[in-house]
Design goal:
Number of domains: 5
Structural class: mainly alpha
Distance between the termini: 6 Å
Shape: globular
Helix content: 40-55%
Length: about 600
């Protein structure tokens, strides 16, 4: 397991023992909370009915109200919206310690750390069919849709198996069965002619169910085959019935996790193998991983990491790029983005948007294949372009076909924030959106969720043409004067305004409608920062938060559940281990795979 850093131990211990404080304060109220939150949220006059004296003294007794208060406090400290601007602001380390305190005190519901049963995504279904049956699956659009929950399409929440979904799976099962029966090689792999049914079924079911088959599962299919034969069915009809019974079995359609019966929360070897395989390869465990699961060696974190690196090396990290990175960094959104063709005629090039997405995926692959620091997503001094993207970015056309790796001549376009996939998907057809771009920085890169806009908050024009004498930036400043909007926009908008030199498609510009772009942006702390290079410096100062966001999103994708405030101590331990390992990809992956957040079905497991 990952060792808990000393500063986290100290911070968490404050919750239990407190420290020097006025005698009229309950001993349960941590001094850090008194220092930074006490002016507004202690005692009978506490604002918004949020009294930390009550919450920390009896968080369980406070019930849902206490839990909600701690969850709001955790989110506000993470977002940087509390304490308010007119109160002394805690530094980054103090904010982390406050979030640890709120997370440790949060009375998590009994099911807060349990993932919902996960139905295979379209991609996972296809990979599983290929691996088990040796044939191509039916087209993905004939399978049930993959709803996006908590940012990913492979979580169980929202993926109920409706009657319509089951009908789609039944049609898919029939199609797969027909393909197997038409292929001598696939047919022989499922049911070798030299083996009786009873001998072939256990191994076949083990591949399909990603674990050893039970005696009852084998016996049920032997009985099914006998019943079909008794009805006069030929060999093809018997195999068809068996194939469809497997393809429609919950153990094939779902990633079932029950945990070890003797220990409760820890996953068994086969369940660990399934998590590892679908994380790294987007498909079921291969033979080598299956052997490790059966031997029990996956209980060793070093063995888990070695298998993960092996799976990633097999395809150069491509599957992980196309699943996790594509969804976390939202690269796929550019495929549905648009720009007004009269102002941006480049949009007619049908390869533009797919190549912009591919540029992000190539950076992710380089990170994984070369074991680069994870912060390269913010600082990469290289990218991948073809002649179309090179022209868009003002770079020399590369030699060779397809996207080629090239060095960036300056630091304006470093990392994902200089890539057209982000810049275009965060824009409108006729103008950029500093709000969308700032929100992306906060939510995706720093994991600081922004609440939805209040009703009646107003909108900005769809075009960036000045209204009267007011530029889009001045209109945005006017919008921020609304007290309902100021708290979020004051933190969010400056990040987006620092990227105004990039137009809707991500091209560099120095003026807009004949006026020079003002790239000097005042920040909430009163300092002024200039342009994309200034934004890069701001993010480098918050690398700890970026690594945390990376680790959190990776674990949500791998474990199939959201992370809660009560998981914060474990998450911070992973970040500390990653930073101690030079922020290398292998350090983050190894720490994540060693964590109970990956190895246990439920959170809160002892170290």
């Amino acid at each position: 397991m990952v060792a808990l850093p000393h500063n986290l131990v100290v911070a968490c211990s404050l919750l239990c023992v407190g420290s020097a404080r006025p005698q009229d304060r309950p001993a349960a109220t941590p001094q850090l909370v008194v220092q930074h939150c006490g002016a507004c949220h202690l005692g009978v006059d506490a604002e918004r009915d949020l009294d930390f004296e009550v919450v920390f003294a009896t968080p369980q007794a406070a019930g849902s109200q206490g839990a909600a208060a701690l969850e709001r406090a955790f989110a506000a400290v993470r977002a940087g919206t509390m304490p308010p601007a007119d109160e002394p602001a805690p530094d980054a380390a103090a904010r982390r310690d406050l979030s640890l305190l709120f997370g440790a005190a949060w009375p998590a519901p009994a099911d807060a750390g349990q993932p919902t049963l996960r139905r295979l995504s379209r991609r996972e279904y296809g990979a599983s069919v290929r691996a088990v049956f040796g044939v191509e699956p039916p087209p993905a659009d004939l399978l049930p849709e993959d709803p996006i929950v908590h940012g990913f399409d492979n979580l169980g929440d929202g993926r109920a198996l409706s009657p319509l979904c089951f009908e789609q799976y039944a049609a898919a099962a029939a199609a797969v069965s027909r393909a197997v029966l038409a292929s001598p090689a696939a047919r022989s792999a499922c049911w070798p002619a030299e083996l009786p049914l009873e001998a072939a079924l256990p191994q076949w079911l083990a591949r399909a169910f990603r674990r050893p088959a039970t005696a009852a599962e084998v016996e049920a299919r032997v009985a099914l085959a006998a019943a079909r034969r008794a009805d006069g069915a030929n060999a093809d009809a018997v195999l068809d019935a068996l194939l469809q019974s497997v393809l429609l079995a919950p153990s094939f359609l779902f990633r079932v996790e029950t945990g070890m019966p003797s220990a409760g929360a820890p996953l068994d070897g086969h369940e660990l193998a399934v998590r590892l395989a679908y994380l790294c390869a987007a498909g079921p465990p291969d033979a080598e991983l299956g052997k490790a699961a059966a031997a029990g060696t996956l209980a060793d974190p070093a063995v888990r990491l070695a298998h993960a690196m092996r799976l990633l090396a097999a395809d150069g990290g491509r599957a992980l790029a196309e699943t996790f990175f594509d969804q976390w960094l939202r690269a796929h959104l550019v495929l549905d983005s648009n720009a007004d063709f009269r102002r941006y005629p480049q949009i007619w090039n049908h390869s533009l948007r797919p190549n912009l997405r591919e540029e992000v995926l190539r950076l992710a692959q380089a990170l994984v294949a070369e074991d680069l620091p994870v912060t390269v997503l913010l600082t990469a001094d290289f990218t991948h372009v073809d002649p179309t993207l090179a022209k868009l970015y003002g770079l020399p056309a590369p030699e060779g076909s397809g996207l080629q790796r090239v060095a960036l001549p300056d630091d304006r376009r470093r990392g994902v924030l200089g890539m057209g996939a982000f810049l275009m998907s965060s824009s409108l057809p006729l103008r950029t959106s500093p709000v969308r771009r700032g929100r992306y920085v906060l939510e995706v890169l720093l994991d600081r969720p922004v609440p939805p806009a209040p009703p009646g908050a107003g909108t900005l024009p769809a075009d960036d043409t000045p209204v009267g004498n007011r530029s889009l930036r001045e209109q945005l400043e006017q919008h921020r004067r609304d007290r309902r909007c100021a708290t979020c926009h004051a933190v969010m908008d400056p990040f987006g305004l620092l990227l105004e030199n990039f137009d809707v498609l991500g091209q560099w510009r120095t003026e807009l409608h004949g006026q020079p772009i003002d790239d000097l942006v005042p920040m909430p702390n009163g300092t002024a920062v200039r342009g994309p290079q200034g934004l890069q410096q701001l993010l480098r100062a918050q690398e700890h938060e970026f690594v945390r966001s990376f680790a959190k999103h990776l674990l949500v994708f791998a474990s199939g559940r959201p992370l809660w405030p009560s998981d914060e101590a474990e998450l911070q331990a992973i970040v500390a281990a990653t930073r101690a390992g030079g922020d290398r990809w292998s350090a983050l992956l190894g720490a994540a795979l060693a964590s109970p957040l990956f190895t246990h079905r439920t959170s809160g497991a002892p170290r």
